[in-house]
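[agent] plan:
  1. take the single chain provided in the ticket
  2. run structure prediction with default settings
  3. attach structure tokens to the ticket
  4. add a short note for the reviewer (M.T.)
[agent] executing step 1
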Amino acid sequence: MLLAPCWLARALAGELPAEGSLGAFLGEPRFAMQPVYAKDRFPNLVVALDGTVLAFFNGVKVRRSGDGGATWGEEVLVGRGFMGGGVTVDETTGEILAFVEEKHPPAPLTVYGSKDQGQTWQPRETVIKGNQAGNVPAMHMNEHGVTLRFGPHRGRLLRPSRWYAQANYPPENFPTHYTDAIYSDDGGRTWQASEPFPKMGTGEATLAELSDGRIYYNTRRHWAPKGENPRRRWTAWSHDGGATWTNAVMSEVLPDGDQDRDYGLMGGLVRLPVAGRDILVFSNIESPAGRKGGTVWASFDGGTTWPLKRRIAEGGFGYSSVNAGRPGTPSEGWVYVMFENGGAGASVARFNLRWLLAGERTGDGAVPRWAAGDASAPSTPPASTPAPLYRDPVYDGAADPVLVWNPARESWWMLYTQRRAKLDLPGVAWCHGCEIGVAESQDAGLSWSYLGQLPLSHPDPGYSFWAPDVVRDESGTFHLFVTYVPGDGDRKIDWAGDRYLFQYRSADLWTWDFVQRIPATSDRCIDPTVFRRPDGTWRLWYKDEGRRSETLALDSRDLRTWTPASDPGVSRLYGEAPKVFSLGGAYWMLKDPDSGLDVYCSTNLSTWTYQGKILDIPGRRNDDGSIGKHPDVVVAGERGCIIYFTHPHGQRFPSVDNKMPLAAKRSSLQAAELEVRDGRLVVDRDRPFRIQLPTPPATAAAGVP
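[agent] step 2 finished; step 3 output follows
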């Protein structure tokens, strides 16, 4: 124990990394187990920055181990009351926060802090703010919290919580319960409640941050409406640091308690601190009846599949909590499971990944070769494309993307329609009043950071911008083509009204000068797309809603003077958002008829042959379970990358007072790989791939894009 201050000093100085190598969890198989408490309930286990392992139990008390879990010190009182769960280590300061409620909640809460790795505890002044409905959650009984390590919310404290509504019992109250989370960006002084988990009847949750900054959420559920299974674990995701949750999916592999009743059981969860890998370990029971048969499951892809499991206790097994050792400390390489052992007390099992790898295959996915340290496997993880690729952080309504290389910043920019999904507006007013949002990627498209809204000039104070497209000419000047809708956006509750095509130009992609209103065929034209033809001239396609929604075209030699094209070729085929590109020796046009994307092929950019649909069947990735809409395509050699938007929950939700719920309005951007096979354009939206947007030559004119 004399070494603890040294370990902590090194951790706070940044000398001990938060994440280390996979090898620390391999070596020879190791497993050990010992009792730590003789009575009481409700475990939580965390590992301090210096590697001290802390096992919390109701009372609220803690026992500490400074040698990786081999021996344990005497009980230390944290604070009298009821175990709140969610113990959280602040990896910025080293402080440990414990949540103590006066009794079974709803009940008054005291948060205690320890700055000496759990040896002493002091109450802290803490404020917890409610969600949009004003609901302030209770703390009991949830898995430990985390400090976010990646992305724009790095340093945020995040822990699961729950809303009991009026009370826990009687069971008739269960349908009003839900899980959520609280998060703090000021070291735990103030906390904000997240929005609810998308399913009701949930309670006692776990969460883990993945290496791409997404949050994986896994929760117990002891009530479900007719037709939904309450006996398996339910999962969801957050792409905004734990503020909201989406894409609730039931895991067919992970059981929720004994399978003879609809009641569930608190489980444990941790992501192993292995750099660049998303290895999750989950604990619960596998039992047809009764709380027994403690088991751990492993995922190697951040919770998408769970191919491995192993039993750790045959007898009584209740609530459990899982954590992992820290690099460079005596805890390194260990996985810890603290569980109620059926004898009114608790035990701690510890093991390494090598021991777990000898477990039973579940048939849900495969254990990758690299997980066992296979030298022939890739030494670095194949950073897969996130799903979704991007969500707008302001209104959660990203749509109609176009990607363009910014040579001055040596990065990719994405311009998109910034629909105002989060606003509580009548009809489709949330689709009006839109700006053009901008995000930037400095890693070839793997991650995107929000930059703001383009400061475009406009002729009237009430306006909407929709569906941008950008090309670059030989001089390096960028040209923006965009739909402009005049009038007050908040009052446009339907789709009536004029729409114009506007053109702007810029030298830097941010400061734009108005050029002209494009001379289109009516006052209801939308969705311009521009492509450079082999002879150096330009063609602009658009949808004319004033002429039976035909797709029409204009030609230009100088990107200034536009004349009607003699043969647009697809004039009477319905569909918005025409997008034209070249791939595999042919020209392609995609159109959005709101049933997936229609595909047309051409050899001359005038005569088009219909080839069927893509993205018309919902995908299985996060936020990708609906049809693909209004895309952009970036081509690199013989492969293309399609970026499209989805309404993850669909739009078939009843309106209340002519207002749609957020679930029906919000949208996400997704990416998938395009190929030409046997002369046909194909895309498998579920297939993992690594997005790698190309770096154009410094002298290239960005016709695409």
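[agent] step 4 note for reviewer: Confidence is low (pLDDT under 50) at residues 1-5, 698-705.
[agent] ticket updated
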